[in-house]
Design a protein that fits this description.
heterodimer, A: 634 residues, 4 domains, 4-stranded mixed β-sheet, 16% strand, B: 358 residues, mainly beta, 4-stranded antiparallel β-sheet, 4% helix, globular
């Protein structure tokens, strides 16, 4: 086993000597820190001189578990080591030894080369000795903590890639998740070795300082810089940044976490720590560019950091409730948001907010693969919810359908449909139209209709002269209704009846039909746990225990978003579903990261608890069974 | 003994409460559950209620009758104007199942406090104008304002709005006179504008365009006042401006005078009340970092511009004008800012005592 030579990793750092006091007795309770350090140094030197007179090899240790560090040596470590690393060392004996092996602790001499120990030899005598660190490691540490050898082996260059893959450098999405990440790292035995790597990277980022004449030292330094270069190539910028943040703030979880959330979200996107889909829409609108590239992203992020208004507007197709939040609020909200949102769902084309919201919930709790889609991007919501209901034998709730007269059975048959194509769903528009053409017009099974937007439709073009096209009016289309026409072999198809509309129960509205509601299926059939939340402490507790959890609910739009929706009549209430996926607390104030179903999925808003409570309470007041409609899902 | 009296006096003084006055708003009360009510006249004689069967019923003089029948799940929104000659009912099907913010409802008009209603069109936010002779409503699917003269069905015009980013924009509309419609719109860059439509020439004119984007305009009109407020959307930090145009029998719109300007993100919800009073929801304090606001209902006296805070609830979001009563709905409660608070008392007066025969 080749030890990753710790001695190669550190430059000597000897502090400037302080004025030695006249006496070496420890001062009283109230004394300056500088004096305490100077007393400690004097005692260290005195002990060192005394122990040098009787060198030991600790070959005759009776019991490695009973080996202790000399108190003066320990004091020196405590006073001279960074507090973050002391925190890592304080967990237990083996954690302390790991930190010592990783050269993170220092005495007044700087890097630890010698260790003052106290032990009992095989003759039963109590011995205090100064021993080389390597001896101490081999004869005491590795005997007492055999796993330390495994740790050292994991951080050899040849297996470094595997070690990096096995370690999570995930950027937390909210404070609760961050606290968990912090605790995991503090308690992980590998952490001191990661911090050793961080220290090496910091050191080797500075120019080399050893003169060429000092051949031996120069060789050591060259070796260190070579290792640093290799490690820099293996660790990504995000991982190096993570290590820098943790190792610098290992003793303070608040400082560690604030680094993630204080840093502008847009910078994280540029650094590839967050997906760029969150900014694509805003950037293309604000810069007026249709082509997307890293250069465009960089330019855009710079603009969003500088101009608060730049985040207000997205592209027409993907916009929902506009204007969106201003840039600093958007950055703050996205930093604390945990909703899986790596897609667009175009709420402007949604004619059933319950479907849009439930699709967001489903795609968060069950990671769903990307599937081929055609038509408006709102079809992702329709397809997700339809397939979910079909899976649990509840597709009857999908009321939008296309009907035809079956000639064989001489009855009207209706097929559920949504206006767009989603994977191979049986309710995809082209699938339904193909089926109807086969049944009524004698078209072949291989007939494939295509969806064409009205603005692109040109019947004189050769591609539209034959076959089947479904021309949709993009200004007048939703999921369950659409202004459209079907052209089959250049003739417009008439006589197809469409039952428009998608009325469904998000939460149950009566006991008779309770089992057909979306939340009932989610809870009973899909076995997802839901818990009622009606207080702010309850919500805080939920996010603390389930950092990636979300809440969903329904409130009156006029109370949830009074700036956008106005009450003009008594007891007016427009039900609007929403999702809460994070919380920011400052003192006794809290802002909730909220997306109504009408908001663009990448534009969460900061909403106060009192607003959420008012909206849900007012909706409860109007609800047929007075249901409280705010639940946590976990 | 004397010492004990002094101690009691001190204790009583300390629990008597603060010496400053607290705003205690009366709660709106009715003889039935408030969540069923959809409209009540200012004298309380006529009440329109939602029934579980889906019907709209009217109660007066201890009699109740269904004025509209529809399937269960139907909801009604009823509005009127200061002229008190007609009422408008918006009939919303599948209230809790069809969660489409741009859904279109049936619009019906009838006599004020009447029991007969006729369907006029389909859309949202219907509004009566000019002595209840005209009706406007908005079609969110077509993005068009409909203008209808109620006496003559043929006199109907449609005003198309421009393309915009906000898919859920609803314009404010008032009529200046039988030839001119004032309405708000926003363009695809987010700039709001007050526009004027001539029903004679069928042409649009820009009356006033916002200097900054991300604001919304509110309009209201009562007696001889037209008020226009420009309010900030959510956290846009554009401040607030309220302008008033004092107008009486004028054929065209004159200039606006600014009566209020603030850097706060006031909520708006403007209502032109009686006696030259303007109600709106004002932001009293704001944490701009977390986007948290404390809002109250205020009233502005015109033309002085003096503002009085009328509530102490910290989270006011909406104001409603129901036949001259200015109401403040908050969660399960409805507070009365102006007008009678109504009564929940159902007791009949005792009959007069019987006179004994001589």
């Amino acid at each position: 086993m080749v030890l990753l030579a710790p001695s190669l990793l550190f430059a000597q750092s000897i502090p400037t000597p302080l004025q030695v006091p006249e006496t070496s007795k420890y001062p009283g309770v109230y004394e300056s820190f500088e004096k305490i350090i100077s007393f400690d140094e004097q005692r260290f030197d005195t002990k060192d001189k005394a122990l040098a007179k009787a060198p030991q090899t600790i070959a005759d240790i009776k019991d490695v578990e009973l080996v202790d560090l000399d108190p003066d040596f320990m004091n020196s470590l405590i006073l001279n080591s960074p507090s973050g690393y002391l925190k890592l060392a304080s967990k237990d004996r083996c954690a302390f030894y790991n930190t010592l092996i990783a050269d993170l602790l220092k005495t007044k001499e700087g890097k630890v080369e010698r260790v003052f120990v106290q032990y009992q030899n095989k003759q039963g005598q109590n011995i205090t000795a100064v021993v080389p660190k390597q001896d101490f490691l081999n004869k005491a540490v590795l005997q007492a903590c055999p796993k330390a050898a495994e740790m050292i082996a994991k951080f050899q260059i040849k297996v470094m890639d595997q070690t990096i893959n096995e370690t999570s450098f995930e950027i937390p999405n909210n404070i609760e998740q961050c606290d968990l990440t912090y605790l995991n790292w503090v308690n992980d035995s590998k952490t001191p070795y990661w911090c050793q790597i961080h220290e090496l990277l910091v050191e080797t980022s500075q120019p080399q300082s050893v003169p060429a004449a000092d051949f031996r030292q120069k060789k050591i330094e060259d070796s260190r810089y070579a290792i640093g270069k290799i490690l820099r190539g293996k660790l990504s910028d995000v991982q190096q940044d993570f290590l820098r943040n943790f190792c610098t703030n290992a003793d303070n979880s608040k400082t560690f976490c604030s680094e993630f959330f204080a840093t502008n979200y847009f910078s994280k996107v540029v650094e590839k720590a967050k997906p760029d889909i969150y900014l694509q829409d805003i950037c293309q609108q604000t810069l007026g560019k249709t082509v997307w590239s890293p250069a465009v992203l960089k330019e855009c992020a710079r603009k969003l950091r500088a101009e608060q208004d730049a985040c207000f507007w997205g592209t027409h197709e993907k916009s929902g409730l506009s204007p969106r939040p201003r840039c600093d609020h958007l950055s703050l909200a996205l930093s604390y948001s945990s909703l899986n949102a790596d897609y667009n769902d175009c709420p402007r084309y949604s004619d059933q907010m319950g479907v849009t919201n439930m699709a967001r919930v489903l795609r968060h709790i069950e990671k769903q693969p990307t599937v081929p889609m055609t038509g408006f991007c709102s079809v992702i919501s329709a397809g997700t919810v339809f397939e979910f209901n079909k899976k649990y034998d509840n597709e009857e709730i999908w009321k939008a359908s296309m009907c035809y007269q079956d000639r064989v059975d001489d009855v009207e048959k209706c097929l559920p449909v949504f206006f767009g194509d989603y994977a191979t769903s049986t309710a995809s528009l082209t699938t339904v139209v193909n089926e109807i053409l086969f049944r009524t017009k004698g078209a072949g099974r291989d007939t494939k209709c295509t969806i064409v937007k009205k603005s692109d439709w040109n019947p004189t073009l050769l591609e539209y002269r034959y076959g089947c096209q479904i021309v949709v009016d993009e200004d007048n289309c939703g999921m369950g209704r659409c202004s459209y026409k079907i052209v089959f072999n250049e003739k417009e198809l008439k006589g197809l009846k469409v039952k428009e509309g998608l009325p469904l129960d998000y939460f149950p509205t009566d006991l008779t039909n309770e089992r057909y509601s979306l939340t009932y299926i989610l809870q009973k059939d899909a076995q997802k746990k839901m818990k009622i939340i009606n207080t702010l402490p309850g919500m805080k507790e939920f996010f603390k225990t389930t950092p990636k959890g979300i809440l969903h609910g329904i409130g009156c739009a006029e109370d949830l978003q009074p700036g956008f929706f106005k009450k003009v009549a008594f007891n007016q209430c427009s039900p609007l579903p929403f999702i809460i996926d994070g919380i920011i607390s400052e003192g006794d104030k809290a802002a909730l990261i909220t997306r109504s179903a009408a908001d663009n999925i990448h534009a969460p808003r900061l909403v106060s608890w009192s607003t959420i409570y008012s909206a849900v309470k007012t909706y409860q007041y109007h609800h047929p069974v007075k249901q409280w409609t705010l639940y946590a899902i976990y | 003994m004397r010492f004990t009296k002094i101690v009691w006096a001190l204790i009583l003084c300390s629990v008597s409460g603060p010496t400053w006055s607290r705003i205690e708003l009366p709660r709106f009360a009715a003889k039935q559950s408030l969540d069923n009510i959809r409209f009540m006249t200012q004298d309380g004689r006529y009440t329109y209620s939602q029934k579980r069967s889906g019907a709209l019923s009217m109660s007066t003089s201890f009699r109740t009758s269904d004025v509209l029948t529809n399937p269960p799940g139907t909801n009604y929104a009823i509005t009127s104007s200061e002229a008190r000659k007609k009422m408008v009912v918006e009939v919303e099907a599948n209230w809790h199942q069809d969660m489409d913010l741009n859904k279109i409802n049936d619009i019906m008009v009838g006599s004020f406090a009447g029991a007969q209603f006729a369907k006029i069109g389909r859309g949202r936010y219907p509004r009566l104008h000019l002595d209840d002779e005209w009706l406007t409503w908005f079609d969110p699917k077509e993005k068009a304002i409909h203008v209808q003269f109620l006496r003559t069905p043929e006199r109907h015009q449609i005003i198309k709005l421009g393309k915009k980013n906000n898919a859920f924009f609803f314009p404010e509309v008032i009529m200046l006179n039988p030839e001119t419609v004032l309405y708000t719109d926003v363009n695809d860059k987010g700039f709001s504008a007050l526009l004027s439509w001539s029903l004679v020439d069928k042409k649009m004119t820009v009356v006033r365009k916002s200097e900054v984007s991300a604001t919304r305009l509110e309009l209201c009109r009562r007696d001889n006042i037209i008020a226009m407020g420009e309010f900030s959307y959510d956290d846009a930090n554009r401040g607030t401006t309220i302008m008033v145009q004092a107008w009486k029998d004028a054929p065209t719109l004159g200039g606006f005078t600014t009566v209020y300007r603030a850097s706060d993100n006031d909520l708006g919800q403007m209502i032109c009340g009686s006696n030259n009073r303007l109600w709106f929801v004002k932001t009293m304090s704001e944490d701009r970092k977390l986007n948290i606001r404390q809002t109250e209902a205020v009233v502005m006296e015109l033309p002085s511009g003096r503002i009085t805070v009328k509530s102490e609830l910290e989270r006011v979001t909406n104001l409603i004008d129901m036949d001259g009563r200015i109401l403040l709905p908050l969660r399960e409660d409805v507070f009365v800012l102006e007008g009678s608070a109504g009564s929940a008392n159902d007791t009949l007066r005792n009959p007069a005592p019987v006179r004994s025969s001589p």
